[in-house]
Amino acid sequence: MARARKKKTKKHTLAKLLTLLILLAITFVVLCIITPTEQEMMGKSVGAIPGLELPKAVEGEQVVMHTGYTLSYNEECEQPSWVAYELTAEEVAGSVERGDNFRADKSIWTGSATPQDYSGSGYDRGHLAPAADFKWSEEAMDDTFLMSNMSPQVGQFNRGIWADLESVVRQMAVENGNVYITTGPVLTDGPYETIGKNRVAVPKYYYKVILDYNDNDIKAIGFILPNEKGAHSIDYYAVTVDEVEELTGLDFFYSLPDDVEDLLESSLDKGKWSFKKYSGSANNNKSLEDSKYTENSDVKSLRTVFNLVFYSFKKELFKELNIYDKAREFGLI
Fold first, then answer.
1. Is 127 a catalytic residue?
2. What residue ranges of the chain are covered by domains with CATH 3.40.570.10?
């Protein structure tokens, strides 16, 4: 009798265990369906990351923080390898007047280029952090005229396609609430023509990378433009961030989770970006409330962290089971 009861209990336990396994399997499949796929991971964020706009430090270069932007100074070429900053919709709407206070940057240990290096060279003192992005503060505006923020640009480039791209980026900040920007000359394809006593290198190309890291739609885009009069529309010069990294040797947005960084930097969807120039009109400005979700930020962050963790878990599980490609085919990852 006791043996029969034990047998019945064992069967009951196995039935409960099987039911539990089936429920777990169903839950797993449901979670796979309702949590982000590989492509949708680019539309989720985990909140603010300090210094997100900063590339990985370049060995041997001095990193300098000025009001509103940070740069990495390349002494050999006498200009920055990169200039990085965050631009918000509110900052775009600033009203500070341009000052044109070009001067050497005394914070550069080895000495920066000077305005005299550009005098009579035939090249413009081309801003990398544009003055028009820093109208929110007199000090910030003034700091954009430090020569450590300049690079020799062909006049028709600086006042043409480059200025147009800067205006497009301002509109991107307005439409997305804020964007993270890293920009600079390409300094990996020398030798270069040089100008002035300090032998400032004249780059052949310039780049920008822009990251929108808002909860409603994460995306990234890069641009590579030759230092000459523009012959095409802005979107023609758009590339993936990976392509900019390959050309410059820089590592952008390395503070992001690896999975998110890889997806953002390897893909480009031009349809997610506006290539319209900023007009400065009231109708052209969207408030931050229109640009972002109003859901409680703590709830959003918790949900997004869960999505990231579960995404990584299911990806590794499907790889272990050797069904990764099939899982992607059926939209489970």
1. yes
2. 62-288
